[in-house]
Each structure stands twice: as C-alpha cells, then as structure tokens.
Design the sequence.
C-alpha cells in the first residue's frame, strides 16, 4: 500500500469527522455542551496532528514525487480514482493545517452560541483542507477545493460580525466564480490529455497554444483564493467579519490553497504560459506589496489592518513562485508556512483583545504593555516576525524570495523589498497604538493578562516562528527535492520549446 | 406461453389497488390504516417482483422489460414510497386523510410502470393516461381548498392538452408508418423519413416535455406544486418525473431512435430553455414550493443535457442525474412537510429565519439538499452535473455544457438564499416536531446525498447497464 503500511493519509484526513459525529450527539445544557464540544474538538484535532508529526518523521526527503500514496476505485466510467499522496510541498501545508486547527479551536472562547455546529464546521473544514492538499488527482482536488466553501460560508455567516451576511455571500460568490474557471480548465485538460492524475499530468506536455487561456483560468481560480491583487476585495470583508477562529483558518490555511494551486498546477503544467505571464505576476505581486501596505497603513481597526497585511504578504509569495528559481519558490513556500504561523498568531492576539470587550479600534486601545506584559511580549514577537526581522520565520521567507527575485529582475527585488519596509511602518503603528501610548480609558487599564488557554494558543505559534527563523533547515529540507525538480522541469520545458522555435525559424 | 413473472409487478399493483378499494368501501372505520399499510406493502412487493423479473417481451410485444425499465421502475417505487410515507402524517393534519389517496398512488404507479415498459404506442398511451388521471385527482385531494381544486383543474386541463398533443403525434406516426409497435416503427423510420412522421415526432416530444415540465411547456408546474397539498407535490416532484423522463428516453431511442439528428435539436432547445428558466425565474420566488417547482424545471434541463448527447454515456449520465434528483427532491419536500407551526403548514421562505439555531437537524437537512441541488461538491448533485456535462462535451455539445455551468451558478444564488435565511437571519420559527416518518426520510435522503461521494459506483454501474439496455 504505502510506506506506512496503513492508510495514514486517509486517517489524518478523515479522523476529524469522528469528532464531528461525537460533537453532534452531545446533549445537555448549552454551557456544558460548549465545554465538552471544545474539548472534544481540541482532542480530535490533536490526534491528526500527532499522526502528522509521525508522518513527517517517516517522510523520505530525497524523493521528489508523491509518497504515502493511496488509491481507491472511485468514479467508474470516468476512469477517475480517489488518489492521495504527499510530496514535500504538500507535507508542509498539511502540517500547517493540522497545527493551526487546534490553535483556532483554542482561541474560540468567544463563540458561545450554537457551539456544536461551530466545532463541527471547524473540524469539517480541517478534513476538507487536508483532503485538498493531499489530493493527487485533479478532480479530487477540485471537489475539496470547492467543498471548503461550505463550512467556511457558515462560519462567516453564522458567527461573524455585523456585516457577516454580506461578507459570507461575497466570499462564497467570489470563490465559486473563481473555481468555475478551474472547472473549465480541468475539463479541458481531462478531455484533451485523457487523465486527471496529477503525477501523469506533470509529465504530459500541454500545447503552447492552449497554455495561455488555461493559465488565465487558473489565475482567476487560484488568484481569488490566494487574494492576489486585484482579486482580493472579498478578503478584507471576510477576514474582518469572520469570527476569530474562522479568520485564523482563512488567513493561515485557506489563503495558501490558491498559492498551492499555482505551484501544483500552473507552474509545472503550463511552463510557457507562466514564463510569459511572469511580468504580469511580478506587477501584481509588487502592487500588492506596496499598494496594499499603504492601504493597511490607513486602517483604524486592528483586525482589518492585519487582514490587509495578509494580502500584502501574499504578494511576496506570488513574486517568489514566479521567479522559477529554487530560492524564490522555496522562499515562497517558507513564506507560506511562516505567514500561516505569524498571521495566526496576530489574529489570536486580536481575539484576545476582542475578548476583553473594548472593541478593536486602535484609537480606543493603548498602553497595554503595562498591564498585559505577557500579551505584549508575544504580540511584539509576531509583529516583528511579520516585518521580517532576522531570527524569525518572516525573515527566512522574505530573504529567499528577494534573492530569487534578484536573480531574475533587479527592480522586482528592489520594489518587493521596499514594500516590506512599509510592513514595518504599519506594524509599528499598530504596536504603538495597542501596546504603548497611554491608556485611552480606565477600562483598558483594567485588562487582565493572558489566560492559560490563550498562552496555549500563542506560545506554540511563537516557538514555531522562532524555530523556522533560527533553524529553517528542518522545513526547507522537505522542500529541496520537489522544488528542485519543479525548477528543473520548468527550465527543461522552456529549453525544449526554444529549441523547437529555433528549428522552425531556420 | 406467457411467463407470469415479468407481469408480477403490474399485477401486484393493479390487483392490490382494487383490493384496497374494495376493503376501503366495505370496512369504513379501518379503511385508512388498511389502505396506507396495504399500499406500502404492495409497493414493496412490486419492487421486489420487479427486481426479480427477467428480461422479456409480453403480450405480443405490447410491453417489454429490460434492465432499463427495471432501473426506472426502481426510481418510481422509491419516489412513490417516499411520497406515501410523507403523506400519512401530513394528510391527517390537513384533514385530507382519505383511503383513496394510497389507492390513487398505486394506480398512478401502475400507470408509470406500464408506460415505462411500453413497447407499443397503444400501451404507452394507456399507461400514460392511467398515471395522469390518478395524479389529476391527487392534485385536487384537498377538495375543500380553493388552491388545491384550482391546482387539480389546471393540471387536468393542461395535462389533457398534453395528452391530446401526444395522441395526435401518435396518430400521425401511426398514419405514416402503419404500425404502433416500437421495433416496427424503428425499422421504418431510418433513412428517408416522411414529413408527417417528423410532425408526429414533434408532437410526441411536446406531449412528453409537458410531463417532465421542461420549459417552455412548464407553465402548470409552479401553480400545481404550490396549490396541491405538499404531500402530493412531493409525489409530483419524484416518481412521475422519473417515469416521464424514462418514457421520454425509451420513446426517442426506441421507435424514433433512427431520427437522432432530427430530435437532438429539440432536446437541446428544451434543455437550454429549462435550465435558463429554472435558474432565473426561481430567484424571485418567496414560496418554497414554487421555488422547488422552478428548481425541478431547471433540473430536468440538466438531465436533458445528457439525453441530448445521444450517446450511451449521455443516457447513463441522465439516468444518474434523475436518480440523484429523485433523492434530493424527496428530501427537500420532506423538509417542507416538516415546516408546520401550531398545526399550520408554513410555505414562505422568510418564515424559515432562525431555523438553523432552533432546529439544527432539520436546517442541516434542507441545507444539504439545497447545496446538492446547487451542485456544490462534495454533495451528490455535483457528480450528476459532472457526468451530464462530460457526456455533452464528448458528444460535441460544448455550448450546451457551458450554458449549463453558467445557469448552475445563477441557480446557486437562490439555493444559497434559502440557506442564508435559515442560518443567518434571526427569527423564531417555533416549528412543531415532525413525525418520525418525515424525519426518517430527511435523514435517509441527506445521508444518501452526502455519502454518494464515498460509494458512487453502485448507482453509476446500474445506470450504465440501464443505458446499455436502452441502446439495445
């Protein structure tokens, strides 16, 4: 079957469903249900995490292809099998998902109504996301790429803020519209190349004439999900209105689905088109970094500021992917991991602020470093990491992307780097308004420091931010083989194309 | 020598119905319980007999049973059985619990089974009329309600018109071919086709399009769905749809099989019109039964896509679609039946506000059916759409598939609105507890819709075998 000898990936993917069933059967008082459901959800998300770590220890880093493969007969007549497997790229994102879900559950103390449904949705979201990252069949990928919408729609719409209905609908329609384009591309590839197996598709050349419009379809589908500027407009609403755990999952995990789509499909399958689209993608990335950073600077609400900061960092990831260099792509992946950890940390901290009950407007906070020292230290750490301070994970990702970009285009590297300086500006503005200055009201001065469950959510994130920052090799060695293979295939495909063009021109 | 076993299902239904009628008239006090229980029993017996029956031709070629007819019959039994279970409690609460209803359902099912198995234009018409007449009466079951009688009358007048058109088409076909037997007609209508037979074909298509409520012959559907008692609408939304669709398939691939090039454009037009109308007209609806009526028009459009492909894969896709739709539709109607406040049926969408908080199970059930109808993976509706779109693309009908994808996005909007009202809007619906039977149907339908992704192969293989049998 596979290296593990048992279907480990399926187990990791679908174990949270056991939690869903258990939580659905809970009965009793609302408060006791809430307590039980939270514990049950936490437990059911920790087991897959443990399995995920074991998987990491068993993972063979020298292999570029998919490992731990499983295949089950699925749709007869269409020759589609339910196939899952992981390579280094998906392993990192699976681990991120498995790690972020318990954090989101820990930071869900603000949710008090319809708790059973809430945790069921969170666990369902975890299952669908992992299923999507591990899919090695395009149709399976598509099914779960869309399925993620259902629990997320409910999370935003039911437990969100005042404008939740608008935000939920916008989120749903934007992503549905985007994935429609992917469906069209999927069906074209399926009918013309005769398979949906990703491993086969990676070695099948797609005619250069079709690549461009396929790329446009992928760009819309994955661009919406990854919130690439200018397809990002759903994001501030969704992030701003979603409940804190929902925002954490959206920002840390779901936004990576788009970037993952680019890496898994667009880059390896459409080498000519992505090469041609490189200037466009660089422009979009640079605009995202600079323009969105300026927008972030203008925000007055902590949560929306962090939401825009998230879009700006997605720009860095896009730049990294489209350098087609080992440094750039690996940087983008480290940035994906690091962004997931940092943004989760920042949103957990936002949730802590929100739970103290004085809102999230920056002019109504201040001076919290005095009465919340533990909170101040951790928020400072995540903020510095978000600016890309050396020693934190943010630095590793950004420096790799800048180096990768420098190999390709000096100006992209310069402008992208400059945008990151803007990141310092808005983060420092936020830190000053929240932690320093003076207390804007007596209520602020009475805020208590972090509680045990808040430490439990923030400290593991902080440890990982530092781990990736100080010893990134634990994660980058997972990426070396698949990224090298990706870049090599890309170069080879382009070389073949150029040779062909030269033959024709003679 | 006629072997009795292929006839057993029809005999069970017919004789069973008559027996219940006699019992109902003689033993008035226990008539309702006897009729309800008896109808369920006879449906189950007929289903068992159908599944056990061999292939065969009966009565000198009047009827024919194949894997295809057994597939369609099974869908009919599932739909009718569900509708019957849903009707018990609802009819009692509405004060329309009469022993005639289960008997009418049995006769309607008999008509459907006969028309699906028809191998001759005469047996086709007899079965067609039997089911139609039984359903006209069922629509007007709440005879003291203005809405219900109006629905019954509308259905009768428009249905009679459709029957007339069908009969006219049949007579033209007979006039130009000189026979009513399917194989004989198929043998004659191949290369050079008389214009009269083409006109006949068109009339037959129109008559059948009425029955599956494909646009532009859909006008009766919203009014009848809304006016008829919900338990009867639940029947309309399931068994007759499956039966009429199966009949449509068997007529156009059977006697008119040689005229694929001629009828294909008609089916394409029906499909496009139905999908467009079903998704656009539904947006404005405030009554959930009307919404489901428009949605059923749209779904028939998607099912027709596979039909229009004119290939075995296309017919298979259509059958898969119809089968999945029967389950979703039965489930959705079960939810509507469960919406009662202080004994009164609630039918407007706005009244569902707050349902998600108050009755999470019921709301989740309806949400699953709505999402499945919208075609969002991983629910069953997505796979139905996937199969029909792929079949259309393989048959060179790319524009049809594109229109289908676009209308399904428009359609997603109104399905989403129902979910939005249930989950996001504040309200206190204060609905009564539904009966165990209704809850069971909702639960079963939801489980099938959700878990189709896990085990799709039984249905798909069965549909594939049925489509092969249909192609001969």
Sequence:
């Amino acid at each position: 079957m596979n290296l593990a000898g048992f279907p480990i990936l399926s187990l990791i993917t679908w174990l949270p469903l056991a939690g869903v069933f258990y939580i659905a059967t809970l009965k009793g008082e609302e408060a006791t249900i809430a307590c039980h459901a939270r514990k049950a959800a936490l437990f059911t998300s920790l087991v897959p995490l443990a399995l995920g770590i074991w998987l990491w220890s068993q993972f063979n880093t020298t292999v570029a292809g998919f490992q731990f493969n499983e295949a089950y007969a699925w749709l007869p007549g269409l020759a589609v099998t339910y196939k899952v497997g992981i390579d280094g790229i998906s392993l990192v994102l699976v681990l991120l998902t498995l790690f972020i879900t318990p954090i989101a559950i820990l930071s869900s103390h603000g949710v008090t109504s319809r708790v059973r449904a809430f945790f069921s949705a969170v666990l369902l979201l975890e299952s669908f996301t992992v299923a999507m990252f591990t899919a090695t069949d395009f149709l399976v990928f598509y099914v779960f790429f869309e399925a993620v919408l259902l629990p997320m729609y409910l999370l935003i719409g039911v437990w969100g803020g005042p404008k939740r209905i608008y935000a939920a609908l916008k989120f749903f329609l934007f992503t549905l519209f985007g994935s429609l384009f992917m469906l069209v591309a999927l069906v074209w590839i399926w009918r013309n190349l005769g398979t949906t197996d990703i491993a086969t598709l990676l070695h099948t050349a797609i005619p250069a004439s079709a690549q461009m419009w396929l790329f446009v379809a992928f760009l819309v589908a994955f661009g919406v999900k990854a919130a690439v500027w200018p397809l990002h407009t759903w994001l501030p609403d969704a992030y701003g209105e979603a409940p804190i755990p929902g925002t954490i999952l959206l920002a840390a995990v779901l936004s990576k689905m788009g970037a993952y789509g680019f890496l898994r499909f667009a880059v390896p399958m459409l080498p000519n088109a992505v090469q041609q689209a490189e200037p466009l993608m660089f422009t979009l990335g640079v605009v995202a970094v600079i323009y969105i950073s300026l927008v972030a600077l203008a925000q007055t609400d902590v949560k929306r500021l962090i939401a825009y900061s998230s879009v700006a960092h997605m720009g860095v990831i896009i730049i990294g992917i489209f350098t087609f260099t080992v440094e750039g792509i690996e940087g983008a992946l480290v940035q994906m991991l690091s962004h997931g950890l940092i943004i989760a940390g920042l949103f957990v901290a936002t949730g802590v602020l929100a739970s103290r009950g004085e809102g999230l407007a920056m002019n109504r906070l201040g001076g919290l470093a005095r009465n919340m020292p533990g909170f101040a230290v951790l928020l400072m750490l995540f903020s510095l990491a978000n600016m890309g301070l050396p020693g934190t994970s943010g630095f590793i990702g950004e420096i790799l992307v800048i180096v990768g970009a420098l190999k390709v285009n000096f100006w992209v590297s310069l402008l992208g780097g400059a945008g990151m300086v803007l990141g310092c500006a808005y983060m420092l503005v936020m830190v000053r308004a929240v932690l320093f200055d003076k207390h804007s009201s007596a209520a602020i001065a009475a805020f208590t420091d972090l509680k045990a469950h808040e430490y439990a959510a923030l400290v593991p994130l902080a440890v990982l931010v530092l781990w990736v920052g100080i010893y990134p090799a634990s994660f980058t060695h997972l990426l070396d083989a698949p990224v090298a293979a990706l870049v090599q295939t890309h170069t080879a495909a382009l070389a073949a194309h150029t040779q062909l063009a030269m033959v024709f021109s003679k | 020598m006629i072997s009795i076993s292929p006839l057993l299902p029809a005999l069970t239904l017919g004789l069973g119905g008559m027996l219940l009628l006699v019992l109902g008239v003689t033993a008035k006090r226990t008539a309702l319980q006897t009729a309800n229980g008896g109808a369920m029993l006879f449906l189950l017996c007929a289903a068992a007999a159908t599944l056990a029956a061999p292939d065969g031709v009966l009565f000198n070629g009047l009827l024919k049973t194949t894997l295809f007819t057994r597939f369609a019959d099974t869908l009919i039994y599932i739909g009718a059985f569900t509708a019957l279970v849903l009707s018990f409690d609802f009819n009692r609460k509405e004060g329309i619990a009469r022993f005639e209803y289960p008997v009418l359902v049995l006769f309607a099912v008999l008509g459907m089974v006969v028309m699906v198995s028809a191998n001759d234009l005469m047996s086709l018409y007899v079965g067609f009329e039997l089911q139609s007449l039984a359903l006209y009466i069922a629509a007007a079951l709440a005879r003291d309600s203005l809405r219900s009688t109006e629905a019954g009358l509308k259905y009768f007048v428009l249905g009679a018109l459709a029957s007339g058109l069908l009969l006219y088409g049949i007579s033209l076909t007979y006039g130009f071919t000189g026979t009513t037997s399917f194989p004989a007609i198929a043998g004659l209508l191949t290369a050079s086709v008389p214009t009269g037979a083409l006109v006949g074909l068109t009339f037959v298509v129109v008559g059948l399009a009425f029955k599956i409520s494909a646009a532009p012959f859909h006008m009766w559907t919203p009014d009848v769905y809304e006016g008829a008692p919900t338990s009867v609408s639940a029947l309309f939304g399931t068994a007759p749809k499956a039966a009429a669709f199966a009949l449509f398939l068997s007529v156009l691939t059977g006697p008119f099989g040689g005229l694929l090039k001629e009828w294909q454009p008609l089916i394409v037009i029906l499909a496009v019109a139905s999908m467009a109308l079903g998704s656009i007209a539904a947006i404005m609806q405030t009554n959930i039964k009307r919404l489901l009526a428009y949605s059923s028009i749209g779904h028939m459009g998607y099912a027709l896509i596979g039909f229009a492909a004119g290939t075995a894969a296309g017919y298979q896709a259509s059958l898969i679609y119809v089968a999945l739709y029967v389950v979703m539709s039965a489930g959705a109607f079960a939810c509507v039946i469960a919406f009662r406040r202080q004994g009164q049926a609630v039918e407007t969408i706005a009244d569902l506000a707050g349902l998600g908080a108050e009755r999470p199970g019921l709301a989740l059930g309806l949400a699953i059916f709505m999402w499945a109808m919208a075609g969002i993976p991983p629910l069953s509706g997505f796979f139905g759409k996937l199969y029909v779109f792929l079949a259309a693309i393989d048959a060179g009908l790319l524009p049809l598939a594109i229109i289908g994808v676009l209308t399904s996005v428009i359609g997603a909007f109104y399905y989403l609105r129902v979910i939005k009202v249930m989950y996001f809007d504040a309200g206190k619906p204060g609905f009564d507890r539904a009966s165990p039977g209704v809850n069971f149907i909702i639960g079963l339908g939801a489980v099938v819709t959700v878990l189709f992704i896990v085990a799709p192969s039984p249905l798909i293989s069965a549909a594939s075998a049925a489509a092969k049998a249909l192609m001969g």
User: Anything to note?
Assistant: The mean pLDDT of chain B is 90.
